[in-house]
Design goal:
- By secondary structure, the protein is an alpha/beta fold.
- The chain contains 12 helices and 17 strands.
- The protein has a 7-stranded mixed sheet, with helices on both faces.
- The structure holds pyridoxal-5'-phosphate (PLP).
- The site of pyridoxal-5'-phosphate has 15 residues, from α5.
Length: about 400
Amino acid sequence: MSQLQQIDQAYVARTYNRFPVEIISGKGSTVYGPNGKSYIDMGSGIGVTAFGIADDEWIQAVTAQLAQVQHMSNLYYTEPCAQLAKLLCERTGMKKVFFGNSGAEANECAIKVARKYAAEKKGAEHFAIVTLENSFHGRTLTTLAATGQDHFHQLFQPLTPGFAHAPANDLDACIKAIEDSKAAAIMIECIQGEGGVKVLDQAFVKGLAAYAAEHDVLLMVDEVQTGNGRTGALYAYMRYGVQPDVVTTAKGLGGGLPIGACMMSEKVESVLGFGDHGSTYGGNPVCSAGALSVIRRLDDPFLAQVQEKGVYVKNELIGAPGVESVSGMGLMIGVKTVKPAGEVLKACMANGVLPLTAKDRVRLLPALNISWNELKQAVAVIKQACAE
Ligand SMILES: *Cc1c(COP(=O)(O)O)cnc(C)c1O
């Protein structure tokens, strides 16, 4: 084991089991380790580096702001935060944005919005939030409670009360869970990322949206992983033809700097008032400048090429030797392999490609601007690893 790996293992909390891979630098979708070893990055920091590593335009946006003012607190106005909120609202039809630093915080904000909205409108007993089985919504005690995977819950009890879980793609069961718990809101991921790249059915999401609208239950969509161009639409809900009441996002938003956003529709834009919520770093000018540059570049022609690349990857992998099935949208792709996903991953790494896994699948979340050349090379390596 290298000296770096020894120091890390001695001093960094052992909550992550790392691969024996060190990364020193990168450019675009190629990253470099010691001795010039290079890899094609098919994970982009778990869907974070939307425009790859050390992208010139992103660096320019971030460093210009860094030299101007790096932080001021929320007591004062700063340009990037205001412009980012405006752009997000213009692109989504939402009315207000709360900024935090992560996906979990974006979801905490959404949960507070739902609780206060329902408490004021329907009464304090309407505090529950229904989420889906196999979902993932974060690691704080409240977003863990929202997460519909029991193995994350063990030994951390008691979690925040007020969450009920219902099976994905079962509209009747979800409606029953909403009614039984007198729920304030239902929160979904259109594609369950950590859950194994499982895509929700169109009819299910539309049915939930219609039920939620009719019964004044908030439809909250967690776009932490699916958002910001990942699926070939700006947000995945846009591909379902529904208009959520609350949308949360993070990961790819900042392009590599920590920022999360909770976007609120007209119905709930005034629910949180002065003093109801806050975050010291929320809307930090440097993170916001990075996010602004990311969102500005996600125009229709760019999103079309995300789609095109996703279709290419799927077409290459569907029916390939050792591949059972392929799921996902755009550049969020899950591959069910005959061999255990972990073994495929190791074979890819040995051949200079860094994919991810999620549950029993190999998961691909490359940078949205990955070059065709890198994409083709990576897919060839992945195909070989599946077939071996
Ligand atoms: C990653 C993720 C989160 C948590 O985001 P953090 O930034 O790690 O707090 C929440 N929801 C979904 C869908 C995610 O993929």
